[in-house]
Structure formats: structure tokens, C-alpha cells
Amino acid sequence: MGTENKSETKPYDRPSELKAFDETKSGVKGLVDSGITKVPRIFIQPQDSPDRVTTTPRNIGLSIPIIDLDGVDKDPIKYKDMVDKIRDASETWGFFQVVNHGIPESDMEEIKNGVSRFFDQDNEIRKQYYTRDATKPVVYNTNFDLFTGIAANWRDTVYCIMSPNPPKPEELPAACREIQMKYSKQIMGLGCTLFKLLSEGLGLKPNHLLDLECAEGLAMIFQYYPPCPEPELTIGAGKHSDNSFLTVLLQDQIGGLQVLHQNQWVDIPPTPGALIVNIGDFLQMMSNDKYKSIEHRVLSNHLGPRISVASFFTTGPRPSSKLYAPIQEMLSEENMPKYCAFTVKEYTDHFRTKGLNGVSPLLHFKL
């Protein structure tokens, strides 16, 4: 009897449990495949966490704007209307959805299928990509902040930098190689269109943000959220804003994405054929807070797996001396700069050290 009590009151050695989990190289999917019926302690959100879902009401009366890009290159009247709608959405929500964006639905389905194929592979094949070295051409792991976050998130991730220096084709996983290369080029084209619209929304020339190299870098992230036996105890992706200029997200039909709007969590339900676009921290800073990089999260679910493909326009963690600051042409005595200049690497290093703790990394660079 004494032995049983000792076992039950054994101190929680979180670092050891995190290390043991990481060393399996099997991710959350490996836990689910093993048949677990309880969420391991490393994933359980503390009672005082902002992501304890049971304490946060969800607002079902609001929805982010949907913007039709049909005729963006042909109709000047429609184009001006798109500029106005994207500007308004970027100032008030920081999020919007786009339809008729030029990427075929068949390719959107195939990239999601490619993610499924990667994770459905035998674990021994997946393991060869498992690493915490962010300089590798393909980085597969669970939570970039696994060892620094307050609780692990219920998801596995594959990360690749697809521009300006993409991996060699043979370095990409065979399960998704062809569609990943094709889809990344399509997203780069869409990104250029969006940056032109966003530039004009700031009162700048169409190519202003492109000339500042906002569309030079593209990081693609496959997120895989396995079904969760106790979704009320954990979170798929904790409250955070994006360390990017702009993010374009493709989500499947399961849903779970929420955006924080006027201190309320608002669901972003799946819309067939649509892509979700959100302003990143760099663009909020460069627009001197005119555009908003808004916090969002992903709930866990009994259903699954939930699959999403996030495309981040960012220069990534590669060393560069280029400084980013509020755009000079927008500043005046009435609109003084609110941020100091910084390199993307400085920002990314701070973001990675801080982890997804619900606090905006932008605060660190406020003047």
C-alpha cells in the first residue's frame, strides 16, 4: 500500500517528461496512435491560463470580412473597393478571408492531402525529419517552444522555408514534395497581389511594401492537430500573434480557429474555397499600428485530425543586417514612430525565446 501511495504522490518532473516525450520523435500523433485516453500533464493548461477554454465564452454573432478578389487585375472600380475593404478589415479585425484568389480548389485540397500523407506514413519515415535545429531544410517536431512554454500545445508541425532559398526538391518529403513546390509559388503570387492592395490602403504606391522586400521570404508550416481525448484541458495552438509581415492560412473543414476581437473569442468557421489572411507583427510595426496584428488561437477537438497550411511572408531567422522600422512616408508630427528599428532576426529570436505566452512580442520594441 505504501508503494502505491509513493507512486501516486511522486513529484511532477516536467523537464524529464518533456525530454522523454521529445525523444520518442513520434509527436502528439504517436500518443494518439498508442491509444491514450487521458491528456498527459505536459499538455494541460494551468488553471489561470488565458487558454483554459472552459472559462472563455465564445462569440457566435460576429464573423471576419470576406473579400472577393475577382477582377483584381481588370476592373479599376472593383480594385478600389478591394483596397477599401482590405484596409478596413486590417485596421479593425487584422483578419479577413479571400475568395476568387486564383488558387484552384483542387490544389488546395491536394496540399491538405499531402500533409495527411506525411503524417500517415510509418513513424520511422517521419522520424528522419524530426529535429529542433531550425536551420534544417525540413523541421518536423512538436511545439517550437516545447521546453519553454507553460504547457505544450496539442499539435505536430512541419516547417520549411520555401523562399528565397527553397530546399532542393529531394530534401522535401516525398509525400508532399510536388504540391508543396507548386502551392508555394501560387501563394507567392497571391502575396504580391495582397501587398499591393495593402500598400494602397496605407496611402502608399502599390509596390511600396514589395520594394521593402515584404514578399521576398516565405515559410510554410503544416499543422497537424490529432483528435484529443480531453480537449477542454489543452489547446491546439495557444493565444499568439504572428511573427510575419502577412500570413495566408488554409484550414480544413474541422474548424477550431478563433480570433480575439474586442476582447471576445470569435470563431472563424471553414469557408469552402477561401483562404484566411492576417496581418503579422512586422506589418503592424511598419504601419505604425494602423494595421493590427491580432491574437488568435486554435482549440483542441474530439474530432480530427485537423489540418492547416500556414504560409508566412517573413525573412525568417536567417542573419541579416536589414533594419525594419515604421514607414517613413507615413510619419509626421501627429504620427510619430511608435517602435524602434530592428532586424527580423532580433525579432524572431525574441519570439522564439518568449514562446506562445499570449503577450505580443511587439511590446519589447515599443518606444
UniProtKB/TrEMBL annotation:
GO process terms (BP): coumarin biosynthetic process; response to molecule of fungal origin
Keywords: Iron, Metal-binding, Oxidoreductase, Vitamin C
PROSITE patterns hit by this protein: FE2OG_OXY
Pfam families registered for this protein in UniProt: 2OG-FeII_Oxy, DIOX_N
InterPro entries assigned to the protein according to its UniProt record, in alphabetical order: DIOX_N, IPNS-like_FE2OG_OXY, IPNS-like_sf, Oxoglu/Fe-dep_dioxygenase_dom
A GO MF term: metal ion binding
Keyword Protein biosynthesis: no
Domain annotation Fe2OG dioxygenase: ranges: 216-316
Region (Disordered): 1-20
Presence of the UniProt keyword Zinc-finger in the record: no
SUPFAM superfamilies: Clavaminate synthase-like
Sequence similarity: Belongs to the iron/ascorbate-dependent oxidoreductase family.
Protein name: 1-aminocyclopropane-1-carboxylate oxidase-like protein 3
Origin organism lineage: Eukaryota, Viridiplantae, Streptophyta, Embryophyta, Tracheophyta
